[in-house]
Design a protein that fits this description.
The structure is a homodimer. Chain A is α/β, with parallel strands linked by helices and about 350 residues long. Chain A folds into 2 domains: about 270 residues, Spore Coat Polysaccharide Biosynthesis Protein SpsA, Chain A; about 80 residues, no CATH class. Helices cover about 30% and strands about 25% of the residues of chain A. Chain A contains 11 helices and 16 strands. In chain A, the strands form 4 sheets. A 5-stranded mixed β-barrel of chain A has the order 6-9-7-8-10. Chain A has a 3-stranded mixed β-sheet with strand order 13-15-16, with helices on one face. In chain A, strands 5-11 form a two-stranded antiparallel sheet. In chain A, α3 packs across α7. Chain A is globular, with a radius of gyration of 21 Å. Chains A and B meet through β14, β15, β16 and α11 of A and β14, β15, β16 and α11 of B. β14 of chain A pairs parallel with β16 of chain B.
Chain lengths: ~350, ~350
């Protein structure tokens, strides 16, 4: 049974503006501290010990197809699946399972986001191996991250009984909790962060989709028929907009009888915003994470990103995010970094190409 | 009696970094709001109704000579006096008085800083006319600005008895006061800001220098002799470093028996820092003074300067100064804008050309 990676790389996230742009989103940027590779490239290279590039499929949007192909020349062109428009993760996973299942009916899929950061790759690969083995045995499997803080920004999974070494039943999926519940979750030791990584045989997830998301299954069937006639691209443009826009978590994982979870602890971060970039980066004694060409004067807790050769001087400011690029500059308090989305929304509204 | 302007343009101020640089200091920048001219050019054009360019002398440093000449092509080359090094304002004024006095023994000098902002030019010219008339009559004259706030950053002059319409005796010069005294000064109505503008006949100030700064007078005499032999430039390099480094205020004005002062109120600002630039500029309803290409989101009281075409986004920040240039960026709270000097000092120390 061969394992295929399905890298979900369709994100057009706005939270790393102005470094990220519509046609150069987060996954195409080198946002991990000390790593000059894009997050997408790092994702593919990280799993190379388990999955060779020929068995890596990347799902992205049509407008990002070219940039994604350029970023991953080792991935065969036919493994690059470009969605005509984003319909959340259930259609993305379903379509990838269909396409790969046609080529290899025994395929085991490992579904991974393209834009996460993993600090401990060896432990990460161990977790992936467990997930793959469980999926080979027919299970629907997810990865749950051992929480390190009472995070309210993630969904959680409750661990159930162990099913084998390092694998548990997942008792239930839990929406983003409030602070109090998040603290209870952390204290209990029974809850894990929902990482958005999944393992299953292509045939198994397609059956689950047929049962729980029949309208998606119908659409996928139309794509299969069209593919048989060499007409998948045309059919895609017609069918994709009609697929249910729902996440694989809500649409399938939460509904199937049994989900297994592999708990893991490998320095995971979803790199959700500039705040996270600051958290992950190395800090000076005053908590600053800045470029080598930054001069600090009575400044603490700041994050600076700027082009090489640009001198940045921070005087008397604390806890700021300062991101400079050739044509746009952002200044925002670290704790409000997510609010940069408002700026991108305004740029989109007025058709500004710098979004 | 012809009036000559002596523009003191030797400043290498650091408080407008990164817009200002060692070879492009404040007076060569268009820092006045709504005015695309450099402060130096604006200074020369402002006085054109009183003094034609042929009678404008500009004293600057050797390293700024070229840039200053380029900025003022209408000023004759021989009126550009370049000091081999800065020795404060007494040598600057003394040397200019010597040079102009040689050409025109009856010359009346109007000494003006090159880097101030004047909002009301008509009222300013009125004050200058009064100063010139008084100087023609042999007085040593200064301009005192009617204070509009209890400023602790300026020296003051106390008004004495009136000597003629719009002209008073100056009772005394006062150092920068503390807050309490500044408030008393303001309330009394008897104190004026020392503007650094002076009027006197060349012969009168040279006599005063001979009396109160004999070492300066000796140096100037050596320069005169050398000039008579066509050797002033060589002598300048030898003599200038030996001249007493003292301000014309301390070295002469405070010591002569009688100084007259012309009180004025013409929207004067010494444009001392980015804070002042923010104060002078037009503000939006939230107190921001920013470039047209700045996007603000929950941001108040900020100042932004950036190159044309650069998008600047401020989110959730108040009272910041953000100055972007091609190769350097500054972020500092408005109230601490003067502390940018620390950055320039560090750049100088390490020989960084971006100072």
């Amino acid at each position: 049974m061969a394992t295929y990676a399905v890298i979900m790389a369709g994100g057009s996230g706005t939270r790393f503006w102005p470094a990220s742009r519509r046609l150069r989103p987060k996954q195409l940027l080198p946002l991990a501290p000390g790593d000059e590779r894009s997050l997408l490239r790092a994702t593919v290279e990280r799993i190379a010990p388990l999955v060779p590039a020929e068995r890596v499929a990347v799902v992205t949007s049509a407008e990002l197809g070219e940039a994604t192909a350029r970023e991953l020349p080792e991935v065969p062109q036919e493994n690059l699946l470009t969605e005509p428009l984003g319909r959340n993760t259930a259609p993305c996973v379903g379509w990838a399972a269909s396409v790969i299942g046609r080529r290899d009916p025994d395929a085991v899929l490992m579904v991974l986001p393209a834009d996460h950061h993993i600090a401990d790759e060896a432990r990460f690969l161990e977790v992936l191996r467990r997930g793959i083995e469980a999926a080979e045995d027919g299970a629907i499997v997810t990865v749950g991250i051992e929480p390190t803080r009472p995070e309210t920004g993630y969904g959680y999974l409750e661990k159930g009984a162990p099913v084998r070494e390092g694998v548990h039943l997942a008792r239930r999926f839990v929406e983003k909790p409030n602070r109090q519940r998040a603290e209870q979750f952390l204290a209990s030791g029974q809850f894990l962060w929902n990482s958005g990584m999944f393992f299953f045989r292509a045939s198994v997830i397609l059956e689950a989709i047929a049962e729980h998301l029949p309208s998606l299954a119908e659409g996928l069937a139309r794509l299969d028929e069209a593919a048989a006639r060499g007409r998948e691209t045309e059919e895609l443009a017609r069918t994709y907009p009609t697929l249910p826009s729902v996440s694989i978590d809500h649409g399938v994982m939460e509904k199937v009888d049994e989900v297994w979870v592999v708990p893991g602890s490998f320095g995971w971060s979803d790199l959700g915003s500039w705040t996270t970039a600051w958290e992950l980066a190395g800090h000076d004694e005053d908590g600053n994470a800045v470029t080598p060409e930054t001069l600090l004067e009575d400044a603490r807790g700041n994050y600076v990103s700027a082009p090489k050769g640009k001198l940045v001087a921070l005087v008397g400011v604390d806890d700021l995010v300062v991101v400079d690029t050739e044509d746009a500059l952002l200044v925002v308090p670290r704790e409000r970094a997510q609010d940069v989305r408002a700026i991108v929304a305004r740029l989109r509204e007025r058709g500004d190409e710098r979004r």
